[in-house]
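Collaboration report, partner site 2.

Our partner group contributed sequences for two proteins of shared interest, and the home lab folded both. The records are reproduced in the order in which they were received, starting with the first partner submission.
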Amino acid sequence: MKYFRMLIIIVILCFPALAKAQFYTVGDDPGRLKWYSIETPGYKIIYPSGLDSLAKVYGGLLEKYRIPVSRSAGYAPGEMTRIKMPVILHAYNAQSNGSVAWAPKRMDLFTSPEGYEAEAMPWADMLAIHESRHVAQMQFGMSNAFKPFKWIFGEMFAGAMAGVYPGQWMLEGDAVVAETALTTAGRGRSGDFLNYYMAAFDSGDFRNWNRWRYGSYRYYTPDHYALGYMALSGIRYRTGKADITGTYLQYFAKRPYDVISYRTVSRKLTGKGFRKTFDDTMRMYHDIWSEEKEQRAPFIPSVLISDTARIYTEYSDIVTYGDKIYALKSSLDKSKALVMTDNTGKEKVLTSFGNISGPLWHAPGSSRIWWSENIYDERWTQKINSVIMYYDLEKDRKRTFKKDGKRFCPTTSPSGKYLVTVEYPVKGGSGIEILEISNGRRAAYINAPDSLQITEALWLGDRIFMTGISEKGYGLYSTGIPEMNLTGKATGSDNEHTAAAEQADRLDKDNGTAAWNTLLAPQPVKIRRLQARGNELLFTSDKNGVNELYSFSTESGKLRQLTSTAYGATDFCFSEDGKTLYYAASTADGKLLKCTRSSDLLDRETGFSDIHRYRVADEMSRQEKELAETFGRKAREQERDEKDDMADSEPGNDGETAFSKPERYRKAAHLFNIHSWAPVYFNVDNIMEMSYDNYYDLASLGAAAVFQNHLGTMTGQIGYSAHKDPYETDAWRHSGHAKFTYTGLYPVIEASVDFNDRASRDYSFNRYNLNGAPYMMSMTGAGTEKPYVQGNLTVYIPFNLSSGGWSRGIVPQVSYTLTNDRYDTGIIDYDLIPDEENANVVRPVPTSREDGKTILRQRLSGSLRMYTMRNTATSEIYPDWGIGMETGVSFNPGLAGWFSPVGYLYLYGYLPGITPNQGLRLSGVWQRQLKGDSIFDTGTVNTLPRGLSNLGDLSNTILSYRQSAKVTADYAIPIYLGDFSIGPVFYGKRALLTPHFDWTFFKGGGLYSVGASLQIEFGCFFWIGAPVSIGVTWSYNGGPSWNSFVDRGIPMNRNYIGPVFSLSLP
């Protein structure tokens, strides 16, 4: 029995992580959008109005790669399901991403291409391969031993199994394997992707599997995409077997009881356990990289400018202005900021930075640094703009130049009058937009060919030079300056703009494909940070396996390699006199700021088609081709049969895929989509937040169903629960529950109703008179025969004003709660009569009754929350700087004379600590009852010190003072524990010691608590890879009012010791 109880505890602790991984939405698109849908043999594409062509592009690619991604995955997308996979296109989000979820099952594709540092393949192809592979992977959770459970639990079971068995590292790493093995590019052929491992292994950093998987707050750890790719690709390369992912997934599905399944399958594939196999993979990659490093040698000399890093630090986006160096800097314990380094080496932080979507640009002689940055819409989380911003070095201020649209990678024209940006329209494609810096108006527009995604553009002389991605990779191109809006001869400086405003604002469609010159034919390598140096173009490329600086002559067409570094370098920038080259060099300690004299550069001619061959990636591509030859006939027959079954279809845009006719996708008709259920009752929101009043608020006997529409704007659940009555513990209650949240309107609406959790209660008010004078009032309640019903309605608007590395928001909210509990406002009078046998005892005798009204118990509240705080770095506990406020009022309609309305104010703020990852949190809360002559005291917030906060009698006593306040201070001290493992079950990352102090103020007195909490943060807890903190807190309680409360008979202890538990959901 004790083992069963332990199992229940583990499940309750782990379920929030599993629930969060499944029951989530990617956000809400603008509510004004109308939606349409088309179908292919395997998918249902749901997309905003006007994007039919874009939908067909993605539909065609998803069908194109459906069979190829299945060959080595062990399953085909849709193999275990009957309903076509919903695919939702989010076209108004400037960020590039995609996801596959299984509760409900759906694929979300963010269609805007990556604006900077994109992989050397079209975004749509990469997205189609990567996400299709995820759909294939998810089939294992519905096959073999797992198959019956989809009928019992619906779609959530397969999602839960994906979190328990393969885990995120395998799912994402395998998807990167697919995008690499099925193309000539992919992240596995990028000089950036595994770059840190290259430097780390060379410095002797061969950590064990757990340390790479669960990470560290002291040592930098690449993400699960890179780790998973390295682990899986290493096995494929050394064994020559392409279907290792399928082998793992099918084994999980057939033998889910095997708790050492990784070891079992690894021994079958390699003859060794998984961890030993991974050790061999690290050595294999190190041997390959060491050999390639010798071939790249010799390396240019360099001088370290930045201080030796105490903790992993990255510099990027280097520019020079006068004798000063400017760069973006971030580290494990400090968020991204623009820093200035003077000629003495002293560094100064200028301003924080947010999620930039392009490199910093600075033209010689100018005081402005330009960049593009992703900014959320004030309300819609799936509307993210890439805006143009600049920082004025002379005026020391940051400004927004263009607030809307999806513009990337700004550069200035030679005279500084115009700004050249790359734009990605919602409908797809790309173009070059030229803006007047003086007023922000469009001066000209150049449409890119449909087959080319422009990534960066630069005005040099009488040409626009640009880098772009096509099916074959990155290339270098040029086109002429548009003449219809800019007149005069091009002489290396800007021509005067004389066209009318209406002409300047229109798109020059005819200029889209005319007079485009290919300067460097596309190759499956990266090109980024395009710059000019005289008549030469400078750019960074990984064509030799690591990032180096190259120079292209616009006159001779020759390409020269300027740098040769051990592990690559990025963000190259020459000093204003051209004598020194600054750059961020990759090392095991980070990307550090270094420099080299121009006279020491390599300056070697090279060919752009002379590219590095990634032997592991090439071997995996060979394996996939071999699989295609083996299973090609069967796949073609399957595709042909499925297309024959497609009804009411028209030819697709690629001549192969069959598409249905576009149909209007009505939001209302698809609002309720029940995707998961269970033969027990559970409350998803309460479990994820670990918030509840009674145990049955989390889970109980019964049944539940969860619903969510595919647009992610409607979520909720319904359920039936059976539990004991909280008042009559011998009786059982059969209850009904419903809850939903709708985010498709500008205000978010949350509503819930609970039926029959207990009996409804009738409350009456009693007045006791002693010697003819009022002595006291009381309220009594009694259960009725009617079931209790409670309904809640909350409406709020989550305004998001974040930018520039600061999270900002304003959230106004109104809530209303209505129940069928009743208050009879009539008063029953009692006389207190001395007892005949004991004169010291009085007994109440009813004498009269005043008539009143019967009012339902209800509560109306309103609040306003505002906050602004700097983004936190990986190892920080609190933000360096921040402040927040919440104020509100709450009252019971119709009962203000009995229960006082309450107002409250809550303030909190953050300050830096003594060391970079320490921090101080200060807070204060004040509460006041707003109607002084109300009979009963009420409260909204708890103002007791934390060591006494659970004492109900003390809380009621504090409320009698009408107003009270509390101030708190917490100082967080993280303590590194060495990233230790306890078998495969636990992985500890650090301890957190937090001394705290609370003081509560009220009329005529006060109370305090002083103490500390100590927690251990686990990166893995019972095999679930979600950060869990477990510990203990201690408080010593006291204060000037302590003795008076003890004398009143309120039970209070000087010392409080209690558990601390928190779960950080990803």
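Second partner submission, folded after the first:
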Amino acid sequence: MPRRSDVRSVAILGAGPITIGQACEFDYSGTQACRALSEEGVRVVLINSNPATIMTDPGTASATYVEPMDARTMARILRRERPDAILATMGGQTALNCLQELGRHGVLEELDMECLGVSPASVENSEDRLRFKGIATSLGLGVASSHAVRTVEDAARAARAMARAGMAGRTMIVRPSFTLGGAGSGVAHCERELLVMCARGLAMSPIGEVLVEESLMGWKEYELEVVKDHAGNCLAVCCIENVDPMGIHTGDSVTVAPAQTLCDPEYQRMRSAAFDIVRASGFTSGCVNVQFAICPQTGRMVAVEMNPRVSRSSALASKATGYPIARVAAKLSLGYLLEELGSGMTRRRTTSTMEPAMDYVVVKMPRFSFEKFPGEEPMLSTHMQSVGEVMAIGSTFTESFMKALRCLEDTGASMAACSARERLALLISFPSPHRMACMLAALGMGMPSAALRRMTCVDLWYIARLKRIARILGALSYKGPSTMSRLEWLAAKRCGISDAALSAAWGIDEMRVAYARRSLRVSPARRRIDTCAGEHDVAASYVYSTYCGAGGGGASRGDRVVLLGSGPNRIGQGIEFDYCCVHAAATAAMEGHRTVMVNCNPETVSTDFDASHALHFEPLTMEDIEEVVLHTRPLGAVLQFGGQTPLSLAEDMASRCVRLLGTPAETIASAEDRSKFKAVLDAAGVAQPRGSIMWGPDDAATVSSSVGFPAIVRPSYVLSGRCMQVVRGAGELCAYAMHHGKRVRGAIVEQYLGGAIECDMDCVCDVDGMPACHVVEHVEPVGVHSGDSACSTPPYTLGSGVLYQMRSIAVALSRRLAVVGLMNIQFAILSPGDYGEAVYVIEVNPRASRTVPFVSKASIINLPRMATYAMLGRRCHSVRGEPTGLYSVKEAVFAFSKFPYATPSLGPEMRSTGEVMCTGRSFGEAWAKSQAAAGYDIAGASTAALSACGGSTSAMLQAARLMRQARAELYCTERTYRAAYSKGVMVHRGGASGHRLVLAPGDGRGELSMPPAHAPHVLVCSTIRGCLALTEGLAQPANMHPLRLQDLRNARIV
């Protein structure tokens, strides 16, 4: 079937900000879709609010709108652009929900737009759990016994009906329809829990429907990624098996591909059932994820659910097999058949109808950030809580499993595995983030496999492999590098045991272990991922390391540059750094270098097989990176773009004679070590907050007298403000030092600059100077982590004198630190009336920062590209963004709804998962649009929480009057209430019951309470500046105009 000629322009809906359950895998999928459609001559109109994505770069789509992902804004854009069709399968649940809204409001019919891949009707069939159950039942497939619930009374009746059916006393699963990442779902152990969960699930479901179904906890869970074309041809790209049983969300489970414990008859039955479901649901073309559960005792198979779109699992399947699912799905939406699409991986010797063959094993492990949410129990359930994931490839399950553990960079897992046997048993009996590491440790202590099986419901096949690893580790602990034979080395490495693990067991330096291993010629081979198990020659150099036999994938010729990625997404280190890595790889390639990407994140664009000349899917540890360097013999390595992970390896890499391109290791140490950095600022004569270095609890009294309170503690070498804290007395400081121990040795305790304005400056430095810099001004004050603060560019209150002073300081520091490439400086500006106007430097990061993508979009200046030129030795021309008269605002997005027991407060430690960006003709317009994009509809808000702690109440009262005119209910702390009452502003005093909100430390420690019904939809204003921003936002007209990113350079409003 030839490509359709009637589809000349297509609107692609993105996924919006990174949230738990919807991460950067949709940037990967969306980027592939944009490029695939552009190749066919289609005009692509992209709508996405996330500035940190590759897909929102001006050159990816024909027209790019970085605007709120709501139906009202989308309708305005679609009426302006008039595309022929709309593609909603690349933007996760957000895009599907937007498609449903556009259909309900008649926009699709009004504009006569065709829905590619899925229609609102087919989305209903798959996302509405009752309809999906009907389709599966009509096909003769097994489903879990369930009841549809639309009210709490329905839930009570469902519980009684299930009790009559013989399920009394059993657990029940609550599953809302049309939610993301299992939001609102849960496991109910009694009727009271069921009613509470159903009430929550009904509130979270967009259609107000929940399915109460029998519990399948302990069953084995599988996922099939199916691709279908218009003619009904289907193929199974990958079968993914969850090592964890049913009852844990698939995004939080350890998974393996291909399935290891599924026999062929079961697989064929599952594959046929998946094809039947996809065809019966009305899905026209593209990728569908279908989930099944199998009872390990009886073999009963049930269909669990389907997702009619690309997903987290489809990104994993694409990277695991080399089959570009999103690209193929985009081409199929234009009318192609599978047999008409050649495989780019095999130089088109095969077509897309060929199901991938895997002669290796892939393991995915989730990455959690429970440490960011104190008070939240680290317990896994049916709703997703992980913030990222890693993927490892090996020739065997054991090799791949141990590589995946290394990829996580999770010290919490190591600490949990060092627990006593009794505590290990407790940790294993509950589904926790560190369960697999604890199981490995328990097997090493002699815990029986049968006991582990009873406690975890993990298949004995996997437990047997973990037992083998534990046995070899135990045996090697009595050896040493000088007594190891080559066969013993090979046995250890084929089990995936790292040099770091052996150095810890033997109590020696890791370099000695590596030297002893290499002296016996034990080094990994390289094998290629090719989709066809080596049957055809492949175009891409997509390789993994293995100690199991010889492998191909030799080093390519030419000047090679190794780029280190950022590893798994986590709070503070996410998609922003992948954005920088992708641009760095493209720039180095344009300069004639062969690029070698090292990363282990399957969700990212950087790990696409054609994003670099060679992709090494490896852990970001010193051992694995050194092996890549020995294999490729590069010109040098680039560390600046991957965040804190590669930066922490700088000194080790330099000591092992790896040339670092750009900023030297000594500079990195001078900026990261607080004591050294304080000395640098002192020598440069740059103002900094009054501070002192603390080495332990004994220094607390001395530091207290020299610094004063309140103070802020900033440890060295930390990511996203880890362990940073505001302290208000000597006792609190001493308790802090005792609690954190060695982790905060050498931390700086500095004066807390209450009321200061915080700014970020992103600079590009070359050997001659600083050709580019850009300033963003924060809305929240100093004391709130920069990643959690809304910010604006250009600055909306700073004068030219302050900006000139900041630039002068940046130039001086870049020369003193010998920075080449990117540098981020955080400033605090104190205005007159505080301590006299002054510019203080808080910290310097000699690397890419998380604001680089936002600044690059707002200024239309590609900072990562300029920085790469500088690191490769080129001199950059001085570039300054032309004034456009437009403001761009970045707002943070949080996941507190996923962690109901964590206190929803902001402070020095970052807690946001993603960000949005919007542009307007004034700061107020841009800010109002950013709030809508982040999910806060200030125009329709009915409840707001206000606090004027630590400053004048006049601006707060001005905002309060405006909000009262908009009929908003205002809740205030006691101090604000008294001030408002005296001025005749009607507000509510925070009650003693209800939902407590702890406000940002920048304005004091005010607390207030509100009725729980208001809590999920409340606007919190805890700062004067935040209230002023809200005031400007409320004054904006309801019909704010969307702007194309391509038009920002000339400020042309279309």
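Feedback sent to the partner group on the second submission included the following. The first helix runs from residue 25 to 39. The CA atoms of residues 200 and 955 lie 37 Å apart.
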